[in-house]
Specification:
The structure holds 3 protein chains of 3 kinds. By secondary structure, chain A is mostly helical. Chain A has 13 helices and 2 strands. The mean pLDDT of chain A is 88. The chains are: A mainly alpha, B alpha/beta, C mainly alpha.
């Protein structure tokens, strides 16, 4: 299974590259999908512990706005990625210290509250953040080279793909490690974990900080791709979208978030292109169908198909 | 597990279908079989009160254009995009329409945030983008946009004109309050007003600055506070359902009897308010296209548009509809100019952009000229709300027309800087009363 | 301090009056969500849609009856009738057809199903009622205004917002409390809320309880919407705005706690209106600040019962 997962990941990456070559506008969509997939990896970690965060858009927005604010002074993509990652990790640590004490609905709602406070701040501090108009990000340079548009888009796509593969592999390793395995115990019987001498809060906190890191990286990538950041990145429906993608893709394996993100973006575009004023209904219906008839998400469907082929 | 495979296959098929169309980012200058226009507007959420009527107007007008042979002899086909999902979705759609669908022109957008995201893209993709409704002054004041053209006015004249009207109508007010939506337009429209007011009439005391959350449905607390503070003037750039709620709640609690309201974007809500809208308050329409304009340039054309829209959709057109009409009128004029300049050949994107620059095109009420920087000069007509037998809703009375060039920021300057330089004498010098028909 | 009160005491008084009306509405919407969560343990994101549909239905019913010559005084009962109709017509189908399938699934999946339902219902609202603002304020106008003395001045308040809304909220609170404490059905609901397994073991038909509770909760959401419809113009998207506030109330109040919901609504209503008077920019974040503050001190919510740790 693990080898199947790796093979499929590489196949998927190749498929994405092929798609991006064939259709330049798809490159943009797939980069955003990869960025969201990375953020959803973080949600996945928390899902293992049975906790749903309804406010992870906070980290995406934080990463995106970090890029937007610092880009004029430091127009280097790699540097900005590192700073955004560090910043969101720090933020995740601070928030996590507070939030990791709570479980289930309180965990979810507290995250929601914090993301909505951030959203309100972004909107209200108009003079600094330009409010709902948003901030534009110019094309960045990479290692001193300033590529023009097409080259730049390829570069960001490549960075996103590499980060996706890398962070996906890391997530898989983490989930297989003792700290990752302990997460599942939080979901089933946290007290027993404590009896074993494992501090459940610290386990959750570690997973939370990692999820913040991934959210921040995803947000930074989104800022570098769409080149326009608005407070809506922090709104609760954006957080809901992340959870949607997590379930659509399936929480069974690290490939799930990426399958889900690509499927989500494509469905949304298709829905908006065909019936521009009913796209919400179509997305909702798709989600319902997946949940009711394929509760393991796309990943589970894929895994089942692979197993059948192997059998 | 048959249905799992079919779902995968369906996804793959959709993926493939989306890959197949030819993709070129630059449009070759050969005559296409149809003129595709990508139009972004709000089809969901609260702003759909603007978006859906504007879509209806677009479809009606494009059908008329096609019946008369289209533009340059080829039929026009609109492709609508919903702005509501957010800018990242919109930016993706913009690219898809330009690079995959191969649209000739983009029309964007209602929301200022959408415009600010799309205009740089228009420059990069070198695709003419007509800014048909957004009002932010930042577009042309923060850099050059060689492929973007705004076929209507924008925030600065739309706020300055009602202010000038107020200063003429009630020159000795001493206190005021503002209640605007808490987002960019609400903040910008306050900044413009305040800067201009401090220059034209220094010393006015602002007793309350309230920015309720966008999408609020209850303003009773804010109204109570305004009742208690009793400002002479209340300024609000609210629109849509929220303006309807504010007016109804305020009218019920007699706030309109205590303070004079200035509502620069009220026109779109007048039909919904019907006779509830109190008379004698200052209203604007983001332009000059009132249904009861006493001296339109082409009364028959105005009548035809209004009657045609009413016959089809059972409601009067509101200003987004007029703005859409302006954009289409400009498009026709630009193509005519470009095709002529090319001796009958089909213009490339650059040639179309050149035709737009400095273009003058007709509207039913007047003519609009596009400046060197792409900004359109649209006159503003402001009046006092009044009721008559002719319309079942409030229309302006004692109208004053403010010529665009005199109330728009000169090209190359920032609005806030220019507004600081205004002189009080301007109040009497600018603005020609329009006699009622 | 005394000086501040002298200057602003009257304004504070006005703020309290305003806060009461808004607290009443918040309570009506949130208490239904809280009940549903307490019993079914599902966070119903579509609760906001039920609020919106209740509002639209009330406006439509009012306009329909008015066109048929119904006298004005019947506008008020018409509101209540609309809410009941929505509760009866939408509650059972949603519970039976949708929620029943997912009771055994994880919480996050249940949440997403309601999220998907929310997305679908948003577009359904647009399909049925269109995008133009809808309003029918006969009930508001009917009750007229009340002139509240304010120093030498008077402030007109609508009797609807000053008396009716808080009145109905208080009635609902008292009625619910009585129902839950004194009737058999009510006590069954409380039993299922505290311990579902034990209640089933006692022979309680959980399925019936769920159906009843959900329909009741839906009716309460619709009631909140119906009662708010005379005051506001209804546009697409009002459901989405209400739901976040309701989430915050539920988390702050404690699971299934009616009195907690009442107290929380009061705090949030008053907090918001005081903010509008003295620091308007804080108004949007007040609910979240309250929620975070309460949860810091009492992690299980205001009146929440600490869950016994299961081993």
């Amino acid at each position: 299974m693990r080898r199947g997962e790796t093979i499929f990941a590489l196949l998927g990456a190749a498929g994405l590259i092929a798609a991006a070559i064939a259709a330049p506008w798809l490159r943009f969509v797939l980069t955003v999908a990869l960025a969201k997939g990375i953020a959803v990896l973080g949600i996945l970690l928390l899902l293992r512990a049975g906790q749903v965060s309804f406010g992870h858009a906070l980290y995406i927005a934080f990463g995106a706005y970090t890029v937007a604010f610092l880009a004029p002074a430091l127009p280097d993509a790699f540097l900005l990625l590192v700073i955004a990652a560090l910043g969101s990790t720090l933020l995740g640590a601070i928030v996590g210290l507070f939030v990791s004490r709570y479980r289930e609905i309180f965990f979810g709602m507290l995250n929601l509250a914090l993301s909505m406070v951030f959203y309100s701040l972004l909107e209200k501090l108009y003079t600094i953040t330009r409010g709902t108009d948003g901030i534009r990000v110019n094309t960045l340079s990479l290692f001193g080279i300033s590529p023009e548009r097409a080259g730049y888009e390829w570069a960001i796509f490549a960075i996103a793909l590499i980060l996706a593969l890398g962070l996906g592999a890391f997530a898989r390793l983490y989930l297989a490690s003792p700290m990752g395995q302990a997460l599942a115990a939080i979901k089933t019987r946290e007290t027993r974990l404590e009896f074993m001498g494992v501090p459940a809060r610290r386990i959750l906190l570690a997973a939370y900080i990692l999820s913040a890191l991934m959210g921040g990286i995803g947000g930074a990538l989104i800022a570098m791709t769409t080149r326009h950041v608005t407070p809506l990145l922090a709104y609760w429906t954006a957080s809901g979208e992340l959870v949607f993608i997590a379930i659509l893709g399936g929480a069974g394996g690290v490939l799930g978030p990426f399958l889900g993100a690509v499927a989500y973006e494509l469905v949304r575009i298709y829905a908006a292109a065909t019936v521009a004023d009913m796209w919400q209904l179509i997305l909702g219906a798709v989600l319902l169908l997946v949940i009711l008839f394929a509760p393991g998400g796309l990943w589970a469907m894929l895994a089942a198909a692979l197993r059948k082929r192997a059998a | 597990m048959t249905h799992s495979l079919t779902r995968r296959e369906a996804l793959a098929a959709g993926f493939g279908a989306v890959l197949l169309p030819a993709t070129l980012s630059a449009q070759p200058a050969q005559r296409p079989s149809e003129l595709k226009i990508g139009i972004t507007t709000f089809l969901s959420g609260p702003a759909s009160v603007f978006g859906v009527p504007s879509r209806k107007a677009a479809e009606m007008l494009i059908e008329e254009i096609n019946q008369k042979g289209g533009i340059g002899g080829i039929p026009v086909r609109p492709l609508f995009v919903d702005e509501a999902p957010g800018t990242d979705h919109l930016v993706g759609e913009f690219r898809r329409l330009v690079q995959s669908e191969g649209v000739q022109v983009m029309f964007a957008a209602i929301s200022s945030g959408s415009c600010l995201a799309c205009t740089p893209l228009s420059g990069e993709l070198r695709k003419v983008t007509v800014l048909w409704d957004c009002g932010t002054q930042r577009i042309f004041e923060e850099g050059q946009q060689p492929f973007a053209f705004r076929t209507q006015g924008y925030g600065t004249p739309e706020v300055l004109a009602p202010l000038l009207y107020l200063l003429r109508h009630k020159p000795d007010f001493r206190t005021m309050a503002v209640i605007n939506q808490d987002y960019a337009w609400g903040r910008d429209s306050w900044e413009i007003w305040k800067t201009a007011m401090d220059a034209l009439k220094p010393g006015v005391r602002v007793v309350a600055e309230m920015f309720p959350r966008f999408g609020s449905s209850d303003f009773s607390t804010e109204i109570t506070r305004l009742l208690a503070l009793r400002p002479d003037v209340i300024y609000s750039t609210h629109w849509g359902g929220e303006l309807v709620t504010i007016v109804r709640q305020a009218a019920e609690r007699r706030l309109f009897e205590r303070s004079l309201f200035v509502l620069p974007v009220a026109e779109a809500s007048m039909q919904l308010l019907g006779r509830t809208m109190p008379a004698g308050h200052i209203i604007g329409t983001r332009g000059d296209h009132w249904n009861n304009h006493p001296k339109p340039r082409d009364p028959a054309a105005l009548q035809r548009f209004v009657d045609g829209y009413r016959a089809k959709f059972n409601e009067y057109p509101i200003y987004p509809c007029h703005h859409m009409a302006q954009a289409l009128s400009a498009l026709q004029a630009a193509y005519a100019k470009a095709i002529e300049a090319k001796g009958g050949g089909w213009p490339s994107d650059q040639e179309l952009a050149n035709a737009f620059r400095g273009l003058t095109f007709p509207t039913p009420t007047s003519t609009i000229t596009l400046r060197e920087d792409g900004q359109g000069l649209e006159d503003q007509v402001v009046g006092l709300s009044s009721h008559s037998e002719r319309f079942p809703f409030a229309v302006p009375d004692q109208m004053i027309l403010y010529p665009a060039a005199q109330v728009s920021t000169p090209a190359g300057q920032k609005s806030v800087d220019w507004l600081k330089t205004l002189q009080p004498a301007m109040v009497q010098q600018v603005g020609q009363p329009l006699s009622a028909a | 301090m005394a000086g501040w009160f002298e200057e602003n005491g009257l304004l504070l008084g006005l703020a309290l009056l305003d806060g009461l009306a808004s607290a009443g509405l918040i309570f009506l919407v949130a208490v239904g969500l809280n009940l549903v969560f307490g019993v079914l343990r599902i966070i119903n994101v579509a609760h906001g849609s039920l609020y919106a549909i209740g509002a639209y239905a009330a406006a439509s019913l009012g306009m329909f009856l008015a066109a048929r010559g119904l006298p004005d005084w019947a506008a008020l009962p018409a509101l209540l009738a609309a809410a009941v109709l929505v509760g009866i017509l939408l509650g059972p189908p949603i519970e039976r057809l949708l929620l029943r399938r997912i009771y055994l699934q994880e919480q996050v999946v249940q949440l997403l199903v309601t999220f998907a339902l929310f997305m679908i219902l948003e577009d359904v609202q647009k399909l049925v009622w269109g995008v133009q603002p809808v309003h029918h304020d006969t009930a508001l106008k009917l009750l007229g205004t009340v002139d509240v003395p304010f120093g030498a001045d008077v402030i007109p308040f609508t009797a609807y917002q000053l008396f009716l809304l808080p009145g109905i909220a208080v009635l609902t609170l008292v009625g619910l409390a009585w129902f839950l404490r004194r009737t058999l059905m009510g006590r069954i609901i409380v039993a299922v809320t505290s311990d579902r397994e034990a209640a089933s073991a006692m022979g309680i038909d959980a399925a019936r309880v769920f159906l009843l509770t959900f329909s009741f909760g839906a009716g309460l959401a619709a009631l909140g919407g119906a009662l708010s419809s005379p005051t506001a113009a209804l546009v697409p998207g009002i459901g989405a705005q209400t739901i976040v506030l309701s989430f915050a109330v539920v988390a702050t109040a404690g699971l299934g706690q009616i009195e907690g919901a009442a107290l929380t609504s009061l705090m949030m209503g008053l907090g918001r209106s005081i903010a509008v008077y003295f620091e308007p920019e804080l108004e949007v974040v007040v609910p979240y600040i309250i929620m975070v503050a309460v949860l810091l001190v009492r992690p299980q919510g205001l009146f929440g019962v600490t869950e016994t740790r299961r081993v």
